[in-house]
Amino acid sequence: MDLAAPRSTQSSPLKPMFLAGNKMVAQHDAEEEIAHVRQDDLQLKKSIRILRVLQRLLATGLSLAALIPLTMTLIKFLQTKDIYKEVQMPDGTKVNRTAWAGDTIAWPTYMYFSIAATSFIMNLGTLIGYFWSTKAANYVAHVGSAFDYAVKAMNLIVWIVAAAIYKYEKEVLTNNLHRDLWGWSCSTAADQLQKAFVDEVPFGKYCTVQSGSWFAGLAHIGSIVLGVIITLMAGRRKTMQGRVKRETQEYEGQFGGPGSYGGAPQHGH
């Protein structure tokens, strides 16, 4: 005869409390995870905004630093290219000539000027937008994306190629003479003409300012690299926003609505 006590078929009165406690713990953990990810997203958003403004300030200043010397050089060239004077050459002969090389090659300077001017205008426009409003900045950035945002890699390539060509043309000699504006300004041949054209073109000054323009261009390339890094950070933030959205949807599906974490994340720029 089985004398064992009959097994109860009723569940423990503590079981619902135990399950409810587990659900509360899981809910709390989920809320903490969402809140933590959202906090990381907000910090990254703030860092990106600060870096964007700093990068724009830097890029605007450097593109202007490259643009001003080029503008000065082109204005001086256009003002003096048709001024002829009788000049005594080192061999004693006298020739009637201008201060610049015969058959001057000016296109490298115009090319570099165009790149610097376009870059300055787009950077300044976006920078003004940042100080005007975030919405305006996003609009200006969108308008300028063909040069600066959507094709940052192309922007980088354009500046590298332009700086390289500008420098290369400075080193090219034709019959042992420089024919571009930068190379000519820094050449011995220009020094020999300086006395005759002392009131028209201070070659030493224009040699220095054009060299400064080239170095400013190199620094601007560095600012573009910084912009690429910021773009990668923005891509990381987009991934983080997707994670917050996914975890929020999972939370609301499991627990039935927003909790102390504050509901669905805000997907701002």
From TrEMBL:
Key words, A-Z: Membrane, Transmembrane, Transmembrane helix
Keyword Magnesium tagged: no
Residue ranges crossing the lipid bilayer per the database entry: 53-75, 110-132, 139-166, 214-235
Keyword Zinc: no
PANTHER family with a match to the protein in the record: HYPHAL ANASTAMOSIS-8 PROTEIN (PTHR42069), MARVEL DOMAIN-CONTAINING PROTEIN (PTHR42069:SF1)
Protein name (record): Autophagy-related protein 22-2
